[in-house]
Amino acid sequence: MATAPIEPPRRLVRAIGDDPASPARAWLDTLPDRVAERLAAWELTPERVHEPGGRASLLVLVTQRDGTPAALKFPLPEQPGAEAEAAALTRWDGWGAVRLLRADPDNGALLLERLRSSVSLRSLPEAKALLEAAGTVRRLWVSPPEQHPFETLAARTEAAVAALRAGAATVPSAAPLVDEATELRRALPADAPEEVLLHGAFRQGKVLAGHRTPWLAVGPRPVIGERAYDLVGLVLDRMEDLAAGTGAAAAARRRVAKLADSLDVDRDRLRGWVLVGAVEGGLRALAAGDRPRGELLLEFGTWL
Predict the structure, then answer these.
(1) With a cut of 50, which residues of the chain have pLDDT below it?
(2) In whole angstroms, what is the distance from residue 271 CA to residue 293 CA?
(3) Neighbours of 8 (CB within 10 A)
(4) Phi and psi at residue 104, in whole multiples of 5°?
(5) What is the DSSP letter of 97?
(6) For residue 107, what pLDDT is reported?
(7) Is 283 exposed, middle or buried (0-12, 13-18, 19+ CB in 10 A)?
(8) Percent helix, strand, coil in the chain (nearest 5)?
(9) What whole-number distance in Å separates Cα of residue 69 and Cα of residue 291?
(10) Pfam families per the record (predicted)?
């Protein structure tokens, strides 16, 4: 019996927009056919589309031929690193991360083990969430294979510096902070103490409850670099809670120190990467029209 066509979730549709000339829109329009082709080729029975889902991929909950549940992921083709995501998941082989079951390099489709997608570390109290996050990310820091498709943090330097400079022109009041972030973004990769495989987008919301183990990372944007870089998202997580309390600046610095010490990372280098991440995120948010978040991220940078 033929199954009904897959309907992409509204969040994904809104994120892509309705520009008919956009490659992303063309991909979205052909997505139901792409999903149907993979379902047939891999003998999968669809259950439902994961809602609300992400803004850069479609996730369909499926059942394999042997009855094992799984998740079928289709990332936007213009998103960097679909090949790199598959390579990283293969390298980790389920150690600290969701297990990759199959991959189709032609269209980027990934068949993943099924996790409890509605339960992330953000459901835990902050102290417990940070503890579990630290234990999870530690498992991901492994040496890359000899032949790999991963970029390095150093290779991204010029593009990152150019973006900071462009953003600085739109926020003159933040010029000193942006200047410091720009200097750090150049200096940190140049004298990195190590080069390991990083998740690249690690934060509490990227760690989901599993079945074979309590917590597993998903959605990597893998890159080769130093471990401190992978902790930026954890430091910035729930920053609204820090801002709402007393002594926000001191609390932010304590969070940096606690994470650095618990994972044997240099405090000053982590502080530097967090400042860079806060400024980059703040400028992006302001450019996208999210003024409250943008201003809070820039303020977070001044706390450090």
Answers:
(1) 1
(2) 20
(3) 18
(4) -115, 100
(5) B
(6) 82
(7) buried
(8) 50, 15, 30
(9) 41
(10) APH_6_hur
Strands 215-217 and 109-113: unpaired
pLDDT of residue 1: 41
Q: Which residue has the tokens 């991909």?
A: 27
Mark 89-107 as b/e (b = at least 16 C-beta within 10 Å).
bebbebebbbbbbbbbeeb
Residue 120's H or E segment, with its range, is strand 116-120
Q: Are 92 and 82 in contact (CB under 8 A)?
A: no
Tell me how far apart the terminal alpha carbons of the chain are, to the nearest angstrom: 59
User: Is residue 94 helix, strand or coil?
Assistant: coil
The string of DSSP letters for 132-191 reads: HHHHHHHHH-BPPPSS---EETGGGHHHHHHHHHHHHTT-GGGHHHHHHHHHHHHHHHHT
Contact (Cβ atoms closer than 8 angstroms) between residue 141 and residue 195: no
Domains of the chain: 10-114 (3.30.200.20), 118-303 (3.90.1200.10)
With CA atoms as reference, report the closest residue to 85 among 112, 59, 64: 112
